[in-house]
Amino acid sequence: MHLNVDYPEFEECISSYGPLFKYGVFGGTFDDLHIGHKLLLTTASTICTDKLLIGVTHEDLLKRKKMVELLQSYVQREQNVKDFINIINPKIGVELVAISDPIGPSGTDPDLDVLIVSRETECGINIVNEARKEKGLTILNSHIVELVFPSESSDKLSSSSQRKNMLAELISKKGDEPWLRRIKGSKTLKPHSLPYVIGLTGGICSGKSTISKYLGSKGVQTIDCDKIAHRVYEPNQPAYDEMVKEFGPGIVGADNYIDRKALGPIVFKDPTKMQRLNEIVWPRIAEYVSNQVSLMDAEVVIVEAAVMLEAGWQTIVDEVWVMTVSPNDAVNRLSKRNNLSVMDAEKRLSAQMTNSMRCAQADIVICSDWEPSVTESMMDKAWTNFQDRLKYYKICQSSDTIENRWTLVASEVCNTSKDGNWLEAICRSEKSKSFLDISLATVDETLDLSEGKHFVLYTAFFFLSTTLHVQNSSPRAYEAMSRCFAKVMMSRKMLQMKS
After folding, report:
1. CA distances (Å), 11 to each of 5, 23, 52, 443, in order?
2. Mutual angle of helices 327-338 and 342-350, in 10-degree steps
3. In Å, how far are 7, 286, 301, 358, 431 from 212, measured between CA atoms?
4. Alpha-carbon distance values, 277 to 42, 244, 310 (Å)
5. Between the N and C ends of the chain, which has fewer C-beta atoms within 10 Å?
6. Three-state SS for 417?
7. Is 18 helix (H, G, I), strand (E, B) or coil?
8. For residues 76 and 129, what is the distance between their CA atoms, to the nearest angstrom?
């Protein structure tokens, strides 16, 4: 057996695992591999000599999990496992299968000799062996891996807990962070301007009004697209004549306004007519909202719209906040609120965009599956983090040159350094790293540096600008600058040689 780990104590670790087996089986979700997954995979690769049969949970078995919309795809989760096994033990045989029931192939493969489980799932040992006994197969040995607890926490480390921690956090989209979109230049967003616009969307009964009220309590003004939609097809508005031409004069009421009761039966019975209505109205709503935002004297504005993503209105906002609720909870809430049967509620919900589709386009996700106090704590977290993003966006707005922007950021980092060690504060600061990306988007990128190397270049520039700002800079700062610039020159030389 080859194990790609290089430290002398490893043989001692192997011996603590107990006897070796030829062919082991285990399973899991393996979403965004955490240390618990890695411990399970490493243990299995250590106690098995020939082959591993690994069940990766299929989407069909995950429908009842919380925040399933934040799960990685099956293909990605399967690749996570392949990549990790290849690192720790590239010579062991591996077969990955999709499992759609709790037992999977562990109950049917006659060649298996050990079942590896976590302490949490050890009850599955008896279930698997009972299934094998019924089929006349040998009873499997078992190996239990202890649970992993994060530091300073009594909560088990799991994919579910990781997904919960992702809520209200900015979803990482390298190169497409919200504050970069205007700086890079958008067709509809004015560069370096306020108000900063948050788009709020979500499905029926997801809790959009709750977060809208919360943000209102923080002094944020809201534009509700659902309430203003009818204004774009009032008489003398561009959409009015186009709608009359498209759907006929029968939709015009006695008061010369569009009669929505007359329009409804036409568009709801014919999907192509509904699509045509949206093609007429949605662009006008986007234009109306953009004009309203430009007239508002505010730092932050919320644009609330149930169909924001369907309509493509994410182009008129700086970032998208998505409110989600599990399908079962949504059905229960809608049935109760509108006095509908479960079947009618499910039918109405099935006609809208799924949570997964929304989350794929979200910058922030907040889930209202839990009690109100939990949702409120998520909103507190989202709002606090947003204040930091707004601060650094405003730095971009107030500075025209890269040098000035770096200097302002340096000032912010130094002012928040508790121990006065500004150089270490810069290195530790996530805001510094984020601002590197901002500068990358605003500087001539002729060097075309590959992944990782632009960080060296702009870190060097960051130290330089900080030194210009901070009086009585320490020798350590100049030493760090010298090292960074040496690396930059080396990177440039390498790039020149490649070209």
Report:
1. 10, 21, 21, 51
2. 120
3. 54, 19, 11, 18, 27
4. 57, 11, 13
5. C
6. coil
7. coil
8. 30
| C-alpha R_g of the chain | 28
Longest Cα pair distance anywhere in the chain, in angstroms? Answer: 89
pTM passes above 0.70: no
Across 63-77, 187-201, 231-245, the highest mean pLDDT is recorded for 231-245
Contact 59, 74 (CB under 8 A): yes
Distance CA 233, CA 284 (A): 9
The one-letter code for the residue type at 233 is: Y
Region of residue 19 (left: phi > 0; alpha: psi -120 to 50; beta: else): beta
d(CA 274, CA 384): 40
Q: Can you read off the two tokens belonging to residue 183?
A: 């700086």
Report which of 26, 49, 47 is spatially closest to residue 36, judged by C-alpha positions.
26
How confident is the prediction for the chain on average, in pLDDT? 77
**What is the identity of the amino acid at 264?**
G
Listed in sequence order, the DSSP H helices in 175-323 are 178-184, 208-217, 225-228, 238-247, 260-268, 271-295, 308-311
63-67, 164-168, 250-254: the lowest-pLDDT one: 63-67
- Is pLDDT at 43 greater than 80 in this prediction? yes
Helix, strand or coil, per DSSP, at residue 238? helix
pLDDT digits (tens, 9 = 90+) for 462-490: 554 454 444 444 454 445 445 555 555 56
**CA–CA dist 301, 99 (Å, integer):** 46
